[in-house]
Amino acid sequence: MHICTSVCPYDCPDACGLLVTVEDGRVIRVAGAPDHPFTRGTLCPKMAHYERTVHSPRRLTTPLRRVGKKGSGEFAPLSWDEALKIIADKWRYIIKEYGAEAILPYSYAGTMGIVQHDAYHGLFYKLGASELDRTICAPAKGRGFQDVMGRTLPTAPQEAQKSDFIILWSIHMLATDIHFQHDLKTARQNGAKIYCIDTYKNKTAAWADCFIAVRPGTDGALALGLMHVLARENLTDEAFLAQNVIGWEELRREILPKYTPEKTEELTGVPAETVIELARMYGQAKAPFIRLGSGQSRYRNGAMTSRLITCLPAVVGAWGKQGGGLLTSASASKAYDKSIVRHPEWRQAGRRVVNMCRIGEALTRDDSIRSLYVYSSNPACTAPDQNQVIKGLSRENLFTVVHERFLTDTARYADIVLPATTSLEHDDAYYSYGNYTIQCGFQAIPPVGESRSNWEVACALARAMGIEDPFYRQSAKDLVEKLIATTSVWPEPVDRELLKSGRPTPLTLPADYNTSFATKSGKIEIRNDELTPALPDYLPLAEDKGELAFVNAPDMRILDSSFNERDELTKGQTMLLFIHPEDAARFDVHDGETVTLANERGSADFTAKISTCTGKGQVVSEGVWWQERVKGKHSVNVLTSQRLTDEADGSTFYDVRVDLHKK
Ligand SMILES: Nc1nc2c(c(=O)[nH]1)N[C@H]1C(S)=C(S)[C@@H](COP(=O)(O)OP(=O)(O)OC[C@H]3O[C@@H](n4cnc5c(=O)[nH]c(N)nc54)[C@H](O)[C@@H]3O)O[C@H]1N2
Ligand SMILES: Nc1nc2c(c(=O)[nH]1)N[C@H]1C(S)=C(S)[C@@H](COP(=O)(O)OP(=O)(O)OC[C@H]3O[C@@H](n4cnc5c(=O)[nH]c(N)nc54)[C@H](O)[C@@H]3O)O[C@H]1N2
Ligand code: SF4
Ligand SMILES: [Mo]
User: Fold this and answer.
1) First CA to last CA across the chain, in angstroms?
2) Is residue 644 within 6 Å of ligand 3 at its C-beta?
3) CA 47/CA 279 separation, integer angstroms
4) Hey, which residues does 525 pair with through a beta bridge?
5) Which protein residues touch ligand 1 with a CB less than 6 Å away?
6) What is the pLDDT of residues 272-331, one digit of tens each?
7) CB 619, CB 597: distance < 8 Å
8) Which of 20, 215, 504, 598 has the most crowded Cβ, counting Cβ within 10 A?
């Protein structure tokens, strides 16, 4: 028996350090690594038994070939050599008949490890395949921040320990960034107040000292209302603004007069007196800290909303104050030079680019995509407009390959399924996007069954397609070592011996990282002349049809669709629909009844749960569930749309309206 260090590979901002106990080539226990500076030895309930995912009886252990109808899940095993030959033959034929752009890769962050995440990029560039714009998560949040702050590093979470006023803004911290709790508890012990702004009262909101409910997609107006009060009550930091900020005077003069507390109430549903109270708390705090999640960015106006919220810390001079600032996503990934795995120089000019949020449209518009290669993602479940995605995946003339650990909803539509390793069966280099820590995770056990890592399959397919490049003669470990070498350019020296040893490695932040601003002008750009409009202003959502707003939030038991394989984690109700008592009375809905939500894209069944956790006119459901775990035939994404955000072409999962019918 021995213990190895590792990293949680999932798409979660914490990137916990792990201690993995191995006996006879099997993982028998997984615990948190106490030496991780942010996660400090604890894990979330999902990962506390990661060994149950690694050794799940549901793991795919051999390549499979479809023998039934697409979607039926009927497959027969075949060897790796046979599977690779079928794929290579088919691709050669497709390239000859339709051109290489008829092949489309589709992936996201099933694993956050850089080598396995980016393993296939070079292969598809070399082939000249269509490219995927990876926009499904929250690019609009990043863009909104960047519009104001440029490349300034967001504030480290541990800074919040010294804050006296913290806002958890559209982040379900107890589900999605659970370790931030440690920092908040320290702040709280020192007297800090913690506010939560969300569209419904989830467990994080209940945990906070005060919950403020905002109407979906209207946070931009709330940020403007707060700035209106800050200006009116002289709670701004004029010295900081004069020295560090461009455009404050114009914003104050031209935009803010419109956003009185009363107008803000009308737009956001937040009572005028609450807007005033929140502005005073924020303006009077010595070191206010905002932790901004992604909820507010998944609307048509998501980038503008994020841009407006990003203006707030500048107005009160929170930057640079001990304990103050704004954390959107930590930029620890910048410590590595990912291009050594990705090979952007192999990209071929003029290739078609498909936005992954519009995969449904791309697969159904015409037959121009002839082969889809899916890895590290489950679009049949997690992509918007599920009916259209499934229509596309059902096309008989689409040759679909899915490289997966489990027979997901997407894998069921594959012609060939390839078994993938878990993070404990391969090597990789990781970073966190919620704190400034990086770490490597090395193989702890042999691959389960015949599973192979993304990197191994990318190498095998490159060979099968006649791509003879020395790049593909390296191991994943070689690439990890090269990535470690690239950390030499992070602003401050990285302890590379520690990184090589597989232990959590904190990134030192430059002393002035939150007082000098990495924008073109060197100042915080409330006015940004490169944008239209140059001054930010609220973008209202145009009304769609549908009586109710539908928010589909994260569930604590699963992570996107990952962990659906775990029966013990997913027990209890799925597809629960929170509905306000007045709406329940209006629709004559009772607790526990089955209700159907429908819009122009489709319909899904839910179990009604009458609750004041949600507001009037808005229903909420948590989790993105596999088909086998849902009540009727469809999960939430049958209702979500392929529409994109105002900037950065991001997803708009929460920008949904529906009608409700009783079953
Ligand atoms: N347990 C668990 N952990 C996860 C995930 C998961 O699915 N489950 N997903 C992982 C991934 S991929 C990501 S990107 C992160 C996401 O982590 P978060 O940023 O926390 O999650 P979001 O999905 O953006 O939703 C956060 C909150 O935004 C709220 N919200 C929705 N619309 C609005 C709005 O208009 N205004 C405001 N103020 N709030 C709104 C939702 O109700 C929800 O409570 O979490 C990661 N971790
Ligand atoms: N309705 C609604 N839909 C959403 C969201 C929402 O809040 N509401 N959230 C959205 C967000 S923020 C995101 S980021 C997306 C994420 O959506 P997806 O990218 O589909 O992520 P997961 O559902 O976690 O699926 C990841 C898959 O990768 C597989 N995998 C893990 N490791 C490896 C590996 O090393 N190799 C290979 N080949 N496979 C591996 C896992 O088994 C898993 O099935 O979902 C989005 N979808
Ligand atoms: S899912 Fe997140 S909180 Fe849970 S162990 Fe992984 S990184 Fe940590
Ligand atoms: Mo995400």
Assistant:
1) 55
2) no
3) 39
4) 246
5) 11-12, 137-138, 169-172, 175-176, 197-200, 202, 214, 216-217, 219, 293-296, 551, 553-556, 558-560, 654
6) 999 999 999 999 999 999 999 999 999 999 999 999 999 999 999 999 899 999 999 999
7) yes
8) 504
User: Do residues 67 and 76 make contact, with C-beta atoms less than 8 angstroms apart?
Assistant: yes
3-state secondary structure of 308: helix
How many C-beta atoms lie closer than 10 Å to residue 647's C-beta?
A: 20
626 lines ligand 2 (CB under 6 A): no
Q: Tell me the three state secondary structure of residue 6.
A: strand
Residue 587 in tokens: 């629709």
Cα–Cα distance for residue pair 157/180, rounded to 1 Å? 7
pLDDT above 90: residue 378? yes
Q: Is the CB of 560 under 6 A from ligand 2?
A: yes
- Expressed in angstroms and rounded, the spacing between residue 557 Cα and the centre of ligand 3 is 11
**Confidence class for position 640, pLDDT limits 50, 70, 90:** very high
Find, among 32, 10, 11, the residue nearest to 21 by Cα: 32
Sheet strands side by side (includes 437-441):
428-431, 437-441, 505-506
Tell me the Cα Rg of the chain.
25
Distance 40 CA to ligand 3 centre (A): 12
- Taking the C-alpha atoms of residue 384 and residue 401, their distance in angstroms, rounded to an integer, is 20
Q: How far is CA 353 from CA 140, 347, 440, in A?
A: 18, 12, 32
User: How many residues are given for the chain?
Assistant: 663
> 601-632, pLDDT tens digit by residue?
999 999 999 999 999 999 999 999 999 999 88
At 149, the amino acid letter reads M
H/E element, 142: helix 139-149
Residue 281 alpha carbon to ligand 2 centre in Å: 38
Which domains are delineated in the chain?
A: 64-136+346-424+454-505 (3.40.50.740), 139-328+512-525 (3.40.228.10), 548-662 (2.40.40.20)
What's the CA angle centered on 645, arms 644 and 649, to 5 degrees? 65
CB 262 within 8 A of CB 307: no
- Alpha-carbon gap, residue 177 to 104, rounded angstroms: 33
| Closest atom of ligand 1 relative to the 11 alpha carbon | 12
Atom 14 of ligand 1, residue of closest alpha carbon: 137
Give dist(CA 144, CA 154) in Å, integer: 13
Query: In the 8-state DSSP scheme, what is residue 252?
Result: I
Cα separations (Å) of 41 from 3, 18, 36, 38, 318? Answer: 14, 8, 7, 9, 31
